[in-house]
TrEMBL record:
GO function terms (MF aspect): hydrolase activity
Cross-referenced PANTHER family: HYDROLASE (PTHR14119), ISOCHORISMATASE DOMAIN-CONTAINING PROTEIN 2 (PTHR14119:SF3)
UniProt keyword Transport present: no
One family name in Pfam for this protein: Isochorismatase
Alphabetical list of CDD domains matching this protein: YcaC_related
Domain Isochorismatase-like, first and last residues per copy: 14-156
Keyword terms of this UniProt record: Hydrolase
Keyword Lipid biosynthesis: no
Name of this chain's protein: Hydrolase
Amino acid sequence: MTSMSLMDAGRSRLVIVDFQARLMPAIHDGPRLVANARRLVDAALLLGVPVLMTEENPAGLGTTVAELAGAGPVIAKMSFDSCAEPAFLAALADDEDLILCGCEAHVCFGQTVLSLLARKRRVFVVQDAVGSRAPESKEVALRRMERHGAEIVTTEMVVFEWLRTAEHPQFRAASKLIK
């Protein structure tokens, strides 16, 4: 494995797709997914990784859940695919690795990931921070994204690849997020 295949905090952006108040109660395992997204946000803040968030139809689905609110700038959208919103694409630097979590895996999240991959972006999907109402919808969506080139990772993989070494000045603080 080359270092190019590892996630690098210095060239990553955490993208949080549609973790919204009115949607989350219907999402399978929602509280655990939100807790993992919060761990990612906290690690990003410790390590200087920028965060970008989206909200699908916020008037209908509500704003971002309280646990994640304020983590980064929010792009409101009506399109399922975040890439259809020019402000979303404008917020992404060309050379960034994109670490994505969010909902729903088979709708807004999946369409966003597939569009980013079609644009030749390096995309890492944090499977334990991605949700759908039905577990089978999430499973099928993850397999599809992986077939198209997304790397499927976990919250813990992201945090420790961003750190790289136990000698990192933020190691102690970041590793506490996982425990």
